[in-house]
């Protein structure tokens, strides 16, 4: 009897087990059909999933796919029976979530957006969100030259802010993003988010805009309408830093940014603007400090920039006063255009130069126009010391100057033209005065420097140790050479001119011939500085000049008188030297005290580093000596032409150095 009862009980348990299992399977099938019905009813995308468990306290769903846009490895919904009756869940746990947001305006995303934006009448609202945990999230976005991959996680616990982490890498146009690490928090109703960018790098892989890899740090906030951020950007070697503060209008797709660049130091033997960007390539090495601030507006397909650039000398002894450049521009990622004005920082009303630039980003070509306003030196507060403290006592300017240059930056090389106009321009220093320069110079090429045919400069006067009256220079420049076509000026009561001369900028040896006409003898003797020597008459002749290693030589220069005149040597030094040398020397001194010459010649020789030697040849008589007996004398006079030679050398050095610097031989 007991055996029969036991067997019957086992059969009952077996039937009950099979029944319960069948009921469980049917429950999963019913739930699956219900989910498909809901998806169809609300026009949601086709959904694939697998319900692995439906229990009294939780549901497990695996391998969920919403078309090809969302895939979820597993979802666990936990609940209490009482919560389910109220339409609430205790927690949602998602794992292995993969989202492809490349088609964010269609498919699942469009359906969800339509569902959430549609009529809400009759819809029940949950009184509180359940605890939500998302692990091992992966977000992919690939669209419009943007390719991003992000690993993310999310956690929400009722009563406190939600938190998330995000680690993003990818490509934006030509820029690669490396390991942008973000941590953030959302408020309880998910309407606002705060985040912190812990680190990351941006790299221009083409090096066409930015050469160094930039590191990023920052923080920000966002809601459905806008996002704000405070970002710090620096290069890996800490040579410069940029702070960017901005607001993104999400609905209007607009960004307003404030950019501040801390002071950057450039040295001619180190860091240069070209090390930041090839667009900042300079034909000369910079030794100065720069700081900048700008406002940037970004709208679809356009970036607008306005700002200012502060320029300070890098030397401990300032070569120039602080400058400020104000600029504005725009770019559509294909071309960039800008205009700028350069002013003195402490005299903003004094504008020194204006710039207009156009850069083709696709070809990496730049076109720049540089123009100075009509600068009237000596008026309206314009003076040399405004530009450089070194010129405070050294150089004084007056007159009008204007210049215009069109530059082209192409294939890593700078080319362009230059036009300079001077009207009544004068400059003076302790060594030289140049009065009233008037000219219009045209150079179709600046690198290398080349003039448009023969150029002419007219001046009223050049005065130093000697004075040149109304000098005129005609010249032409070809790469590395100066063709001196003509130089003429009034000189010592007569005129001076130079033979046509070719000067090679890289050549240490140059030769020319100085032609002299109708010079006043008295002024010439005063110039060469022989004590007590004076005279009357006129001289003609030529002085060959040779420049070797920065010093002038005079070889076999010959000057001759046009006719007769008077020469007088009345020197106490000569009397002291030759007064006891005998009757013959005393007679010579008497003759030279009032010598009426019929002919006079001068030969001049000077070796490098030595005094010039003059040989004076005269024929004539002294009417007061020996009844005017005729004499023929040759006298060697050693004199010091240091001041004249120094003036020649300084003039050559300054002009040569300016030319070499202009064509880029000296940097």
SSE layout:
Blueprint: H1 2-41, E1 47-54, E2 58-66, E3 70-78, H2 81-85, E4 91-100, H3 107-117, E5 131-143, E6 146-156, E7 162-172, E8 175-186, E9 192-204, E10 214-223, E11 226-235, E12 241-249, E13 254-266, E14 288-299, E15 302-313, E16 323-331, E17 335-344, E18 351-360, E19 365-371, E20 375-377, H4 384-387, E21 396-410, E22 413-428, E23 433-443, E24 445-446, E25 449-450, E26 455-458, E27 461-463, E28 467-478, E29 481-491, E30 494-498, E31 501-504, E32 509-520, H5 521-528, E33 533-535, E34 538-548, E35 551-561, E36 565-569, H6 572-578, H7 583-592, E37 595-606, E38 612-621, E39 630-639, H8 642-663
Parallel strand pairs: 4-5
Antiparallel strand pairs: 1-2, 2-3, 3-4, 5-6, 6-7, 7-8, 8-9, 9-10, 10-11, 11-12, 12-13, 13-14, 14-15, 15-16, 16-17, 17-18, 18-19, 19-21, 20-21, 21-22, 22-23, 23-27, 24-25, 26-28, 27-28, 28-29, 29-30, 29-31, 30-32, 32-34, 33-36, 34-35, 35-37, 36-37, 37-38, 38-39
Brief overview:
16% of the residues lie in helices and 54% in strands.
Structure description:
- By secondary structure, this protein is an alpha+beta fold.
- It is 16% helix and 54% strand.
- The protein is built from 8 helices and 39 strands.
- The protein has a 37-stranded mixed sheet that branches.
- A hairpin with a 2-residue loop joins strand 29 (481-491) and strand 30 (494-498).
- The longest helix has 40 residues, at 2-41.
- The radius of gyration is 46 Å and the shape is rod-shaped.
- The protein starts with a helix and ends with a helix.
């Amino acid at each position: 009897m007991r055996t029969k009862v036991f067997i019957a009980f086992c059969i009952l348990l077996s039937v009950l087990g099979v029944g319960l299992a069948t009921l469980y399977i049917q429950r999963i099938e019913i739930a699956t059909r219900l989910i498909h019905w809901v998806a169809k009813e609300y026009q949601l995308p086709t959904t694939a999933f697998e319900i692995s468990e439906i229990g009294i306290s939780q549901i497990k769903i695996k391998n969920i796919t919403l078309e090809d846009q969302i895939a979820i490895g597993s979802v666990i919904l936990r609940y209490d029976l009482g919560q389910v009756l109220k339409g609430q869940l205790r927690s949602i746990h998602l794992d292995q979530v993969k989202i492809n947001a490349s088609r964010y305006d269609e498919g699942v995303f469009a359906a969800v957006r339509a569902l959430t934006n549609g009529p809400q009448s009759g819809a029940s609202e949950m009184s509180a969100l359940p605890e939500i945990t998302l692990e091992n999230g992966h977000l992919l976005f690939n669209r419009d030259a943007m390719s991003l991959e992000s690993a993310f996680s999310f956690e929400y616990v009722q009563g406190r802010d939600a938190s998330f982490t995000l680690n993003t890498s990818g490509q934006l146009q030509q820029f690669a993003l490396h390991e942008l690490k973000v941590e953030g928090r959302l408020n309880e109703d998910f309407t606002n988010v705060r985040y912190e960018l812990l680190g990351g790098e941006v790299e221009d892989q083409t090096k066409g805009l930015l050469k160094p890899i930039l590191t990023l740090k920052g923080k920000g906030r966002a809601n459905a309408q806008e996002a704000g951020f405070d970002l710090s950007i620096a290069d890996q070697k800490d040579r410069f830093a940029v702070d960017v503060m901005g607001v993104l209008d999400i609905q209007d797709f607009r960004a307003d940014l404030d950019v501040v660049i801390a002071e950057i130091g450039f040295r001619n033997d180190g860091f240069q603007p070209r090390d930041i960007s090839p667009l900042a390539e300079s034909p000369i090495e910079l030794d100065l400090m720069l700081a900048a601030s700008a406002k940037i507006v970004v709208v679809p397909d356009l970036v607008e920039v306005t700002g200012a650039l502060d320029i300070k000398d890098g030397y401990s002894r300032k070569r120039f006063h602080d400058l400020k450049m104000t600029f504005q521009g725009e770019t559509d990622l294909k071309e960039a255009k800008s205009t700028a004005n350069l002013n003195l920082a402490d005299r903003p009303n004094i504008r020194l130069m204006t710039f207009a630039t156009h850069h083709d980003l696709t070809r990496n070509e730049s076109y720049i126009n540089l123009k100075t306003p009509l600068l009237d030196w000596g008026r309206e507060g314009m003076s040399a010391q405004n530009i450089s403290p070194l010129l405070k006592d050294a150089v004084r300017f007056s007159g009008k100057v204007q210049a215009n240059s069109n530059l082209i930056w192409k294939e890593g090389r700078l080319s362009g033209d230059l036009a300079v106009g001077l009207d009544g321009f004068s400059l003076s220093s302790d060594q030289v005065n140049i009065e009233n320069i008037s000219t219009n110079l045209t150079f179709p090429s600046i690198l290398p420097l080349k003039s448009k045919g023969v150029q002419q400069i007219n001046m009223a006067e050049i005065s130093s140790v000697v004075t040149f009256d109304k000098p005129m220079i005609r010249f032409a420049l070809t790469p590395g050479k100066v063709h001196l076509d003509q130089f003429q000026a009034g000189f010592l009561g007569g005129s001076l001119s130079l033979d046509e001369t070719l000067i090679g900028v890289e050549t240490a040896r140059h030769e020319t011939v100085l032609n002299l006409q109708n010079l006043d003898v008295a002024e010439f003797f005063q110039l060469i500085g022989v004590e007590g020597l004076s005279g009357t008459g006129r001289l003609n002749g030529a002085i060959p000049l040779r420049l070797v290693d920065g010093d002038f030589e005079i070889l076999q220069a010959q000057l001759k008188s046009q006719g007769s005149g008077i020469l007088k040597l009345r020197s106490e030094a000569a009397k002291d030297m030759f007064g006891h040398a005998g009757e013959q020397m005393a007679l010579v001194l008497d003759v030279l005290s009032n010598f009426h010459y019929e002919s006079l010649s001068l030969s001049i020789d000077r070796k490098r580093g030595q005094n010039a030697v003059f040989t004076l040849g005269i024929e004539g008589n002294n009417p007061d000596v020996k009844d005017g007996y005729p004499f023929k004398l040759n006298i060697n006079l050693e004199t010091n032409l240091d001041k004249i030679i120094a003036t020649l050398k300084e003039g050559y050095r300054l002009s040569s150095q300016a030319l070499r610097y202009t064509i880029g031989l000296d940097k």
